[in-house]
Design a protein that fits this description.
The chain is an all-alpha fold and about 130 residues long. The protein is about 70% helix and about 0% strand. It has one domain (about 5-125). Helix 5 (about 65-75) packs antiparallel against helix 6 and helix 6 (about 80-95) crosses helix 7.
Length: about 130
């Protein structure tokens, strides 16, 4: 699925056919599993480049931002954190409503905790 989401017209089709619900379900069912969460967050990042996705990210019933922060807390591996924050960065650049959602789920506390940790990746630290 991730390879398909590299194409704008397929992102639109994915979202119009319940793709956001699939990502929600994946983060709910597999929230403790590294590889499924990595690919789910990678898919979130890819759809974050499409303006069509912004309504899905700000939808509190889907809770894509909330669920992704919960994944970061459960699986605190650098590759999970990197892809999640790449998504957040993209959303911050393009969707003010998404920023509000990030504040609501207390992403700033997670940022503070991560920056106090021993992350080695300079690019990741910059994204955070």
């Amino acid at each position: 699925m991730v390879n398909l989401l590299k194409h704008d017209h397929l992102i639109e089709s994915f979202l119009n056919n319940g793709g956001a619900d699939i990502l929600h379900d994946s983060m709910t069912k597999f929230s403790n599993e590294l590889q499924p969460m990595y690919y789910t967050l990678l898919a979130l990042w890819l759809i974050s480049f499409s303006p069509l996705s912004y309504d899905y990210f700000k939808n509190p019933n889907l809770g894509l931002i909330r669920l992704s922060t919960e994944v970061i807390l459960k699986i605190s591996r650098e590759k999970i954190i990197r892809v999640a924050f790449s998504c957040y960065k993209q959303l911050c650049l393009n969707s003010k409503d998404s920023i509000e959602m990030m504040v609501d789920v207390e992403l700033l506390k997670i940022v503070d905790t991560l920056l106090k940790g021993n992350l080695k990746d300079k690019e990741l630290i910059d994204d955070i």
